[in-house]
User: What shape does this take?
Amino acid sequence: MNLVPLRLEARPEPSRLAGWISPLLAAAATIVVGFLLFSLLGKDPLAGFHAFFVKPIESRYGVGELLLKASPLMLIAVGLAAGYRANVWNIGAEGQLTLGAIAGGGIALAFHGSESPLILPAMLVAGVIGGMAWAAIPAWLRTRFNANEILTSLMLVYVATLTLSLLVHGAWRDPEGFNFPQSKLFTEGALLPNILAETRLNAGFLIALAVVAAGWVFMQKSFPGYQMRVAGLAPAAANYAGISAPRTVWMGMLIGGACAGLAGTNEVAGPVAQLLPSISPGYGFAAIIVAFVGRLHPVGIVFASLLMSLLYLGGESAQINLALPSAITGLFQGLLLFFLLAADVFIHYRLRVARRVPAPAL
Amino acid sequence: MTTPALRLQLSGITKVYPAVVANDGVDLDVLPGEIHAVLGENGAGKSTLMKIIYGVVKPDAGIIRWEGTPVQIANPARARKLGIGMVFQHFSLFETLTVAENIALALDAEHAGADLATRIREVSARYGLPLDPARHVHSMSVGERQRVEIIRCLLQDPRLLIMDEPTSVLTPQAVEKLFETLRRLSAEGCSILYISHKLDEIRALCHRATVLRSGRVTGSCDPRQENSASLARMMIGGDLPHPVHRDAQAGAELLNVDGLTLAADDPFGTSLADIRLAVRAGEIVGIAGVSGNGQKELMAALSGERRLADADTIRLCGVPAGRLDADARRALGLAFVPEERLGRGAVPEMSLAENALLTAHRCALVARGFIRSDAVRAYAAETITAYRVKAGGPDAAAQSLSGGNLQKYIVGREIRQAPKVMIAAQPTWGVDVGAAAQIRQALIDLRDSGVAVLVVSEELDELFEICDRLAVIAQGRLSDARPTRETNAEEVGQMMAGSFIAASTTSGRQFSPAGAI
Assistant: This one.
């Protein structure tokens, strides 16, 4: 019957090992397909790989860029993971990031030129509040009207992006900016300090690491984190234990929103240094992949964010060195998630070589 | 080499799991038309053995012969093809589908025709197991779900039917009807492997019994020649503990339900009508009834899983608690053992230690919002030891335990929180005699220490054994609670059929508070 004598057999219990191997398997499969892809496009695969995965981080500057781009990814992903573990599906981190950028950037513009040491902390706080406020909308819609947060949070991304666009085209446009849709450049007091010479790496990286550490403590060691895991694994058990379902939704959404908002402020107070119509190359969406590749675990998320960051840099490098279109970045991201979901089958199933079953004489 | 007359022959079946040897060289013969009992405590390996026969689990060694021919039963579909049907102790039903859809899924194309609903009605009527093919499973009680499983098997005209504790949730009358069914099947030549902890049932029904202890066959006998005590001895290798029951010293009223009326939250649920109930310190009140008569709804309302509009309807230790959630009610001294262990009483994927935290976090297991891992593990380890739970330790996942062992753990976890009011739903369902006796004794000890205990059970024997007062639930109404020794099984059986409802309506709805007897 079967051409290939292979079949999937349900495991008696999910394999933890497979859970950790699966991302590696997915990364390997992504590389193999990338190889084929480069060949089909008429590029030398080895040169392609060099340009994609090695060249971006050959220099000190490159390493700085790797960590710079990994920062918002790990920051957002760890916040999303807290919610995902509780079955709270916040897909709108990109919008919450944008609101964080608007709120933080708004402070920077309002106190333009000020050297006060309070500006930067105020921006970060405003960013967190902005992200939380944007995440509160789907949380409220879910708890009040049972509206699916996947849809509402996603739709709010477009509202957020257009709001930012409206501001930089209108009220917040730099009067001396030759009518370009951009705000004034932020002044020194509103920018995160650099932490590695000859690179653009700033203190935002340290903030991200600190948040990841806090996320680990919250998820693994705190009682509210435990309650959120229970809510995600067994809703009936959560109800039995009196864990409030609305509170779980609120916490999941607000934590994700806070982290995304902070990431948005870090971007405008860091590499972007002003408000533009687009301040993120899809970090909010890429972080969803990072969260899952990292197994919703803070340590895994750090590694996954580095990989995803490398894909961003590799995509840019491939555009420059191989004259490939910018879609290459998204393509690699998509491949990675696709293969991860496929490889996750092995958590619950194992592959067996089918033996011929002796047919009984009936 | 083999006797062709045997329907099923197992030789040297061995199955080793990482933590435990579930079956160790098990031999078993089943004759055509024989009702064969498999006896053993929780974790003795009965369920594993049955799963091997049904193709769910692969044996590590041993030979299975089906009607004389060695076979490898790779999966349940293969088993069904051979003519083996199984009714599981834990059901495998899709909650969002209807009865007919669930049954259609398990049948081969030839059986699942357009007339399936009609055939379900026929079979269910013939075997006295009423069932509406169009109902959704999520709205059904455990007892009703079991009917689905039984009828699903019967529809396939099996030649060997495996029944894993089929009677735990049936009324005495329904058990008798099921036995008639099984005897008829047996007379028609269908063999039955019958797993049960109820020794009197095995004596009444089965032709032969094979006894398992710790994965090994320790004996076989003709149960009709034995008595319950001798069977129990073979099973546990010693004498059965008997619960010690002193007279109740009832004290203050700790749980009071005053006119609880609650519309069912799903179309197939049972609405509760004017429930009145009081449980005092130092007594055990039992609620008898056939499943699906409002027990589920009453438990959810009492535990706080479903909150009420009026705080005064439920009072815990004198405090109005109707609007409090489950955790807030626990803070007042409530403990609750729910009917479903996996997914409600425990998180299947989490370890026993993490599951301790689920409700016992008030026992100094959390400090300033942080989990005290050492304290949590110690709590779990102590519970495992004190309640003799067979488990790999505090790190074993809840889903790795057998049903009875997990139940012991949950009961232990709840009791060790030193509650003032203890509510237990089906505390010994699917639990072997040894463990059941232990759980009942624990409830009695709790009562003697001044706790108000409420037990909801479908097993009348159990209720008569441990309860000081007994009420009956039928059609969402609760009878007055009467002292157990002033009533008897016959009277309670009639009340379970709803006799008290008509009586109380004609006499002007005298739902007097139960405490005022």
Chain B is about 35% helix and 20% strand.
